[in-house]
Amino acid sequence: MSDSTNEIIPGLGQKKVFKIIVLGDSGVGKTCLTYRFCEGQFLDKSEATIGVDFRERTIRIRNEDIKLQLWDTAGQERFRKSMVQHYYRNVHAVVIVYDVTKPETFHSITSWMSEVESHGLTKAPRVLVGNKCDCGSPSDRLATVYAQRLADRYGMPLFETSALLDSECDNVESIFITLAHKLYSHQPFRVVSVEGELGPRLVTLNRHKRNTSNDNCLCS
Amino acid sequence: MESINTDSESSDKCNINGDCSPITDNESKNFNHAKNIDDISTPSELKFDEEFEFESFEIIEKRKDIEKCLANPDLVNLEQWQNFAKSKGGLICDKYRRKIWPLLVGVTQEEMTDPPSLDELSTHPEYNQVVLDVNRSLKRFPPGIPYEQRVALQDQLTVLILRVIIKYPHLKYYQGYHDVAITLLLVCGDRASFPLLCRLSYGPGAPLAPFMQTTMQPTQHLLNYMLPILRRADHGLADCLDKAGVGTMFALPWYLTWFGHSLNRYSDVVRLYDYFLCAPPLFPVYVTASIVLQRAADVYQCDCDMAMMHCLLSRSLLTSLFQQLPDDLPFEDILVTAKKIYDENDPTDLEAEVAALEKREEEQRKLDEERMRRRQEERRRGAAGRGAGRGWWVLRRPAHRRAALALTAALLAIYVYYRPELFR
């Protein structure tokens, strides 16, 4: 248990938390990708995500436990208009996924980007992910050069991967780890404060620009 | 209540993968947990109603009553069917459901027509989205179903959905509609499920109609009843949810699919459908509140954090990876509780509270927008400032500007004084 030394104050998260929202058209593999990262295996029978689903995993950066919260969203447009909006609040990073075998999912990236920007996330680290690179023949897949051009335009790194292939596991890993490192070096970010905690684990609420009011109450 | 007590002391523990659900102290439960995850790849986790369950004397008697009524259906009024559907055990088995569900929503034999072929419908703009969702609905099919049969059923499902949205073009398909459609299809077959689904989707008081509007706003509005309903039953619990800011998203798949998307056990799903088919349209939201009540102990133990609370409420303690509820929720009790709360707190009694809640959310949204606008402006100004050179920011303020002007004038005067030849 990565967390077992902290049980002194039950009910309080003490790790740094990075919230990452995963966006993209329906069926591009958002759920499989987050599942692969959080559970280390391919999700065989994935269902449509309705609304928003949530997964998380703790990683270590420079000997510090970091909790990555992944918000896996529904791809259908009707969900993002009024409902997913709420989840953009307090997001630290964005992953946009497309399906390399379906050009239309790639073309939607522009609208996803403008959505991200409309939520004031222009400064947040972003990553573009072309998923399902195990599918089809190379000629069926969108050429990397196009994707790279678009990624460059938005100034974000591009990853091409497959949530299905075990051999691509490291690549999936590196998507989120890259983001985590970027966020880690990008301080300040949200920290869950624990009053009265002593020693080197003492953390303070730093001057964070984003609203943290929802995340720090100590209700019992 | 069984599901509630298992993890009372472990709310802060996370497993290695960072799975945020409270894990149980019980090793054997953990073992089951792992086993459940592995089993997900096989459809055998779906427990259809062929599974033998011990039937109580009550249910055996009820069977006799239902069979008696089905022998002479013309002599039975709607109220009697509704009583069967709502009372303990519901309609018991699919053999009865197949006949009684159409009666509950008033579908007649004449309406049960043969479906068109899939090819005729494939030009519909929603075709791709529907097929995408139907292809991913493998978990909803009977265990061990032969491949060909499953594919045939999936085609029937696609046809069923498209038929409805072609008949009522203003109704929009939503992800989750396929979960309702497949439940009807598996119970009633492709001929009867079409008029049944039509009844649920279109017309005054049609329970699925609000979900099928252009936006999700009407759905959001109805889900907003959940917190006030909960508050009437347990004030502290409602406060807990409210403080965590968990919203209603955790219950969205429940409501949109009448729990079809979120329950592992087929028998639980159809039992709930028995009830919902003859309950008021908002009743599933009361059931939602009732489930939260059922899990009150967990909720009180949970971190007051949006993510944690969302995670706890939206899924099972045992198979905590998907949008799925615990297998052992006592639905008969939950339905009784929901009914009791409904009788005591009609939706019209709650309207004022819902309006207040929505007003508060609107204000919060405006605040957020304002904050975002300001932040963007600051950033823009920051960028502009950097572009124009850092030194000039001093001149922005009038006092600084005046001082700078005076200083320039003085320096000029001194210069002119010492270099008078320039002005001769």
UniProtKB/TrEMBL annotation, chain A:
GO terms for cellular component: endomembrane system. PROSITE patterns: ARF, RAB, RAS, RHO. It is found in: Endomembrane system. Its main location: membrane. It is a lipid-anchor. GO terms for molecular function: GTP binding; GTPase activity. The keyword GTP-binding applies. It comes from the Eukaryota. One of its GO terms (biological process) is Rab protein signal transduction. The keyword Disulfide bond does not apply. Keywords: GTP-binding, Lipoprotein, Membrane, Nucleotide-binding, Prenylation. Belongs to the small GTPase superfamily. Rab family. This is (African queen) hypothetical protein. It comes from Danaus chrysippus (African queen).
From TrEMBL, chain B:
Transmembrane segments: none annotated. Residues 91-280 form the Rab-GAP TBC domain. Keywords: Coiled coil, GTPase activation. One of its GO terms (molecular function) is GTPase activator activity. InterPro entries: Rab-GAP-TBC_dom, Rab-GAP_TBC_sf, TBC20/Gyp8-like. One of its GO terms (biological process) is endoplasmic reticulum to Golgi vesicle-mediated transport. GO terms for cellular component: endoplasmic reticulum membrane. Residues 350-380 form a coiled coil. This is (African queen) hypothetical protein.
